[in-house]
Amino acid sequence: MVGLPARGKTYVARKIARYLSWSGRRTRLFNAGDYRRVMLGAQHTHEFFSPENAEGKASRLAVAKAALDEMFKWLRLDGDVSIYDATNTTRARRDLIREQCESEGVRPLFVEIICTNEAEIEATIRETKVASPDYAFLSADEAVQDFRNRIAHYASAYEPVGEDEGDFIKYIDKGAKLILKNVHDDLGQQLVRFLLNLRGTRKSIWLTRHGESMWNRSNLIGGDPDLSPSGRIFADRLAEFVNEHEAMRDVVVWTSMLKRTIQTASKIARPQQVFHQLDEINAGICEGMSYADIRQKLPEEAVARARDKFRYRYPRGESYQDLIERVVPVVLAYEREPRPLLVVGHQAVLRVFYTYLMGASPEGCPHVSIPLHTLIELSPRIYDCSEERIALLQ
Ligand code: F6P
Fold it and tell me: Which of 33, 167, 245, 376 is deepest in the core (most CB within 10 A)?
């Protein structure tokens, strides 16, 4: 990462890390501020960050090198992608990173975060810096003032990434503008596609499975059945809930293409959008069977699934791992959507989406609990979401 303090680097870095991990790349974030606090203690006022402060400069370089060492150690052992979350605002610092990458055989890509909106910068300072351990000993206003002085030190030495510095992405004003150089490989393309959609607007999202279907009643999987009578009662309750909640006034409803989600959402008087990518996991030759049928008629399939539910692919169907790939357009649509969302989906597909939203381990997703007739409300905080579960029908 590259950029002045309070431009949203850590926000974007964490988003990238979450997205890449979810999509199966072993990704880890190395935050230089965390290393500084561990190595040197937390409380540094702005003078420490002045480019004129020789001692401070040497200490900051030592911290940067320690974080880089750890990063390369991890890449050598376990990693596919590491994100070095630091200001890296001088050419000298980026030269150091590029040289080390070259000697390790690692491809560097600079992602520079630029924000020209003063109100955004102020909000970031107030939200993320005032509560930082760096400022435990200052009042909120003193902390803001000190942080502004810190930014001024960095700004006095800032050299934006130049054309001659290798490959880069410049992400400007929450993705209003992107400038790219040489991002042609798979990972680069994946990153560009993500950043094109990442607009950094925070909104609540509600997830629910469809109401009970006729096939849920007889424990059959897949298919395109209608709602059961109790599923229809759930649909009524859900519509009432939406009407009663002010936070859901501007909600947009997303469903799959299957009848049971469309019927569940049909009473909700809000804009609706259908995504075929939200259809339930395709159980291939097992569609229309019960789990007991599968154990009896296709025991080797039942055993294989129990052994590795994440990677197991139904014959002529899908695995959870496949579902992640299928759900990518939904995740990207979520990242660019400014309005709050209500997603009416299915058990497996919601597990996959929920895992992205919560930043949980993808391999654990087949075991996430997504019960029927329960609304899951996720409210975003700066770096993660809080969660509440509301049972609408017992
Ligand atoms: O049983 C309902 C259902 O949505 C099926 O259509 C689907 O195959 C299943 O849940 C997914 O859950 P699991 O992966 O635990 O079998």
Answer: 376
Instruction: State in Å: Cα 347 to ligand 1 middle.
Output: 6
Nearest of 333, 346, 330 to residue 282 by alpha carbon: 346
Instruction: Write the CA distances from 336 to 21, 99, 185, 193, 379, integer angstroms.
Output: 20, 36, 23, 11, 16
Active site residue 101: no
130/152 Cα distance (integer angstroms): 17
Q: What is the DSSP letter of 174?
A: T
Give the pairing of strands 205-209 and 374-380. antiparallel
For residue 251, the tally of other CB atoms under 10 A from its CB is 20
Other beta carbons less than 10 A from residue 287's beta carbon: 18
List, in sequence order, every residue forming a beta bridge with 345; answer none if it has no partner. Answer: 209
Task: Domains for the chain: give ranges and CATH numbers.
Answer: 9-197 (3.40.50.300), 205-391 (3.40.50.1240)
Residues lining ligand 1, judged by CB closer than 6 Å? Answer: 221-222, 280-281, 283, 346-348, 366
Write out pLDDT tens, residues 253-309: 999 999 999 999 999 999 999 999 999 999 999 999 999 999 999 999 999 999 999
